[in-house]
Each structure stands twice: as structure tokens, then as C-alpha cells.
Give the backbone structure.
Amino acid sequence: MKLWHKIFVSIFVIFTITFNVGVFYITSYSYNFNRERERENAIREQQMIQSSIENRIISAEALFPNIANANLMLATIVSSLSDFYEPQGVLLALFNENGDIIHNDMLSITIDNQLLIFESTSQKNTMEETINNKRHIVVASILPEYPHLTFVYARDISQIDDFRSDISRVFAFVNVIVLIFLGISVYLLLRHIIKPIINMKTTVAEIADGAYNKRVVVNSRDELGALANSFNRMADSVEENMKQLTKASEEKQQFIDDLTHEIKTPLTSILGYSEYLQFAKYTENERIIATGYLYETAMRLNTLSDKLLDLTYSRDENIEKKALDTRILFEDLTAMVLPVLAPRNIKLDTSVDLPEITGDETLLLAMLRNLVENAARASADGSLITVRAYKEKYPILEVSDKGCGMEQKDVERIMAPFYRVDKSRSRKFGGVGLGLSIVSQIASLHGAKVNVVSVPNVGTTVKISFTSS
């Protein structure tokens, strides 16, 4: 059962029960109130008729002194009153002390003996009886002036039963009308209220099927509106995470593809020259050339292995930062890159206008080494590479060269693993395309930003700004 069906049925059932309980209470209260009022009216009217009977007997005693014991004459007195009250739904009866009937309009019922037992002349006994298929309230009492006579009065109160039946039919009709109106109203209202939830359900299903750009549109400021806004924020987060995961997956796959290619190329060379040395007939000069190729290829694999280790180490976020003497850091860098620069007569010029810098010494040296080696690959023999440390708004490490430079489209991609602007030049100088990716990782661990400015045939400048220092 759907949610709005449950709400609809619950409201319908609760209202029906509440309404009918209320109707039952009102009807019962009204019936009991009217019955009590009829009882009180019956007692008053019985008292009035009883007084009239006593007065008539007293008046008749002036002519007939023994009339109080003359049943026939007493019957005549009561009969005249009975003829007057019977059209009003009132029945009368008179009994003597022996229980003999002097007059009785209630022949269709048997008078309960308990009704005729009294403890005092002022006592009035009441009961309800059905006479001629109609409910009557019966009141009995002794005539105070003539204790040997018992007067019984019965009043038709069937109208209150008819009233209860009529009012029950009216309420039943009203109940049906109200329930129909309520059902239609609640149905339309719930459909209106539940519409945003239905829309949200549809959107959730679409997002689950991969449509991460879908959003819930709810133009209300109530709890559903707040829920929709929260859901949309969650969807934004999911979409962003999925984009990041997709990008990471694509980058990972690209990394694997590039790494496979980088490994396959030297392995092919190694296998080829190994097979040549094993089976071919060659001269000593050819052997030296072949083993030279094997050595160069093995060195390329070794360089690739070192770079991968650097890249893995640079992703370790648990680095220990400390204040480093910038001058000593540059001296260590110079000693580290000298074997790469010296064979090509490339000069390294260092400028220190920043006494110290905070970071991990090993990682910073690896970062600067990669930048210098990249600059060397882009530079001609005998050129100059400059490394500077200074402070503007933030501490800055800068490496610049006067090499071949890059187009802007290449600048935007050089941080990606294995990306090389000029593959032939990179291979010539042992590059594997991981240097700037390592630089980017190390800068990120230090809370620094990498900014590359390059102009073709002019040179490249790489600035590392330590914005978190």
C-alpha cells in the first residue's frame, strides 16, 4: 500500500470512528435527557391528577359519606378524568388495598407488584412498560387522604424513541454526505501534498539509473521544501563525487596505459638485443653497440622505477614539515643535479632572498630536482637555468629556463602522469613524463600552488607559492 493510501485510509477510519462515537454520545445524551425530563413531567402530572381525584372524592363525600369505599362510584370519578387524558396519551388506574381493580386503562399489561408496594404515603414508584406497542412511563403512589387507594398513572413516551430513530437516520445521512465530501477533499489534498514526494521518487529513480544531473523541483517552504533542498544538495555532492571518481578512474586507466607503454617499449628493445646477442653472428663492434643499447634501455627502466617510487612517496600525506635553511637546500640541489647538467655544459644559477622555508627536505629536493631536470631537457647545451627563493605575498620557489617553451594547451596538461610535450627529446634525455606530476603532488602536500608560464622559443618559468605558510 502506498504512503498516501495509508494516510487516506487512516484519516477516513479515524474520522468515521470519531464522528460516529460523537453521534452516538450526542444521541444517547439527548435520549436520556428527554427520557428524564418525561419522567419528571410524568411525576408532576401524576401528582396533579392524584390531587384532582382526592378533591373530587372529598367533594362527593358531602353527598355520599361512604364513597371512598364504593368502588363503582370511585370508578366513575376516575373514568371521567381518564376520558379527558387518554387522547393526550395518558392512561389511569386505581386499586384498593386488596389489590382489586377499581379502574384500569392498562389492561394490556400486568402491573408489577413491586410498583404497588410503598413505605410511606409520599413515596412514588416509577417504571417503564410497553403498552399497546408503545413505551410508557408508569408512576404509582398512595392517595395521602385515602391510604387504602393506590393511583397508577402511565404516560406515553414513545415520541422520544421516535426522536432517537429520526435523529439517528439524520445523522446516518449526514455521516454519508460528510464521508463522501471528506473522502474527495482528503484525496485531492493528499494528491497535492504527495506530488512533491512522487516527483522526488521519480528523480531518485533517474539518479539511480545514472542521470546524476537531475534535481527535485519543489516550490514550497515547508518540510517537503526543506527535504527537497537537502536532497538536491546531496545530489550535487553525489554528482561531484561521481565526476571525481570518473575522472580518477580515467586518470588511473590512462596512467596504467601509459605505464604499460613505457615499460613495453624498453622491454621490446631488451628482448630484441638479447636475442640478437644470443643467436646472431656479430663483430666486437656490433656487440659493443648492442650492449650499449641494452644498458641505455635498462637505465630508462631504472629511471622509470625511481620516478614511480618518488610519485608513490609524494602521495604520503604524513609528512613532517620543519624550517629549512634555503641556502643549504639549494647547495644540496646543485650537487644533486650536477651529473645531469655538467655533460651538457648547462649552468645552474641560484638566488636566495628567502632565509628559510618550511617543508619536508627530501620532498622539496625531489620537487626542485624534477623541475631542474625538466628545464634541462627543454634547454639547449650551454644554456642557463635559474632557481630562486624569495617572498612576495607568500614564500616562492621558482625555476626558470631559456629553453624551447610550450604552447598553452601543453601547459594545461603537463601535470598529468606520462605526459610529454616532445617525446623524442624526453626519450633522448631519459625523461618518462612523471617529473611534473611528482612536483604537483609534493606541492599539494605542502599546501602550495604550482603556476607555469611558458612561451614557445622563449622559455618556461615554474613558480611554487606556499600559500599555507
Residues 3-60 form the longest helix (58 residues). The chain has a mean pLDDT of 80.
